[in-house]
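Re: the 333-residue chain
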Amino acid sequence: MENISLLNSTGNQQVDDILRGVIGIFETIFSDRIRGYYLVGSYADGTAVSTSDIDMKILFKNRFRNDTERKNARQICEYCFGLISPIPGDVTANDEETAFSSSTLRLRIKAGSLLIYGEDIRDQISLPRLDQHIRDVMFRAYIFCFTDRLRPNLKARVYPLDYPDPSDEFYGYTYKSGTTVFASVVGAMATAVVASKAKKYVFTKNDCLKLYKRYINDEWTALLEAVFEKIRKQWEYQIPENKDERQQLREICRQVLAFENHFLIIYRDFLLTELRDAEDKDKLLAVKRFGEIIYPDGEALDALKALENCANSEMRGVVHNTINWIRQMREKN
């Protein structure tokens, strides 16, 4: 059996052994088909804690030969980290054609990854345009606010949000006895604020807090520091047993709702700007987004009405449907 030697270590022997095993399986099954294996997330930037998942992108050369190769690669990823590895993982297999065409994937591999095996092609990858990066992270944060893992019974997306569970000790912000999802939501919103307000790329979790403190540094900075220092580093995404620490966690959770609603106003303003200034394809996406969340003020409706007679026939149809949906939802809510 060929010995798999990692180009970079995670600093955790168990994780390194798992990675060597996964790489060995893929190299055996897909001989000479894989360009490289790139760690992303906390094991890539050195911020992993005991509860961290293994996040890795497996990059096939050029494009998948056929649909069978693609399905087999992704099925093996599921087997490795769904059934074999004792540490959970988010490991995906993509081909270079897909990676180069996806702005999100391109950014993660280009600037937020650690090559552990194979050929390094990051110099050949260009960063996505900043305006596209902003769109990507704004949408990601918006989706995270409404994740089913925290708000499974939400019937409609309405601003302002309420706590996931106001009667819960931690207001419903824990999931499966942990705070990983909660911390991810906060991190996604902070990333979106930095990108949209400071016009900066955010590559990693580590970068997020540093950039927020440097360029934003507002009344929410202390909350973000608490999430990073307490929830992530001290408690390692677990719910503490100590009474005083539980009270600290409860207070952090109490403050997050206001930050969520703060972000949703930023998101609304971003969509309004897109309706006014963006190219048609991005303007169309903004119209559709306003058909997913209800804001009680009339700004969104007024901005949409201004597009009712635009030259783009597809746009006119979507605008018409969105306006009708908003009116119907307002009657219900």
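Residues 130-268 form one domain.
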